[in-house]
Amino acid sequence: MDDDVATWMVPSLVSNIEPRMHLCMDASKYSTPLELTTVVTGNSWEKSVLNSKVPVLVEFYASWCGPCAMVHRVIDEIATEYAGRIDCFVLHADNELQIANEYDIKAVPVVMLFKNGEKCETVVGTMPKEFYVAAVERVLS
């Protein structure tokens, strides 16, 4: 399977759905730069995402997910390119199960974009940067 288009199941979220193959790889070989993105938690979700004055990009990830590290790098680039126009956050899906369940996160990585507190775009899996940029542009238009 091509790792660039893989979607990784969140084990703690899949207990109530049909068993599926869990893809495994050594996530430690990937860096997970979060320099330009901020971690959002259940405590900061409403203020940072739902009540934001600017559009918000949230990457749902897990620490054991290798492809998530690849998406982190892309999101960091987007955060730089769109600084001041969107806010970028990451949310650890295994640690924030209530939010992950509310947005029906069954696999990671998932990138969601919000505008005026409403979810308006979703990109599931590891995709080329152009997919994320196109979603950001649609939200900004």
Automatic annotation (TrEMBL):
<keyword id="KW-0249">Electron transport</keyword>
<dbReference type="InterPro" id="IPR017937">
    <property type="entry name" value="Thioredoxin_CS"/>
</dbReference>
<feature type="domain" description="Thioredoxin">
    <location>
        <begin position="25"/>
        <end position="141"/>
    </location>
</feature>
<dbReference type="GO" id="GO:0015035">
    <property type="term" value="F:protein-disulfide reductase activity"/>
</dbReference>
<dbReference type="Pfam" id="PF00085">
    <property type="entry name" value="Thioredoxin"/>
</dbReference>
<keyword id="KW-0676">Redox-active center</keyword>
<dbReference type="GO" id="GO:0005737">
    <property type="term" value="C:cytoplasm"/>
</dbReference>
<dbReference type="InterPro" id="IPR013766">
    <property type="entry name" value="Thioredoxin_domain"/>
</dbReference>
<keyword id="KW-1015">Disulfide bond</keyword>
<protein>
    <recommendedName>
        <fullName>Thioredoxin domain-containing protein</fullName>
    </recommendedName>
</protein>
<dbReference type="InterPro" id="IPR036249">
    <property type="entry name" value="Thioredoxin-like_sf"/>
</dbReference>
<keyword id="KW-0809">Transit peptide</keyword>
<keyword id="KW-0813">Transport</keyword>
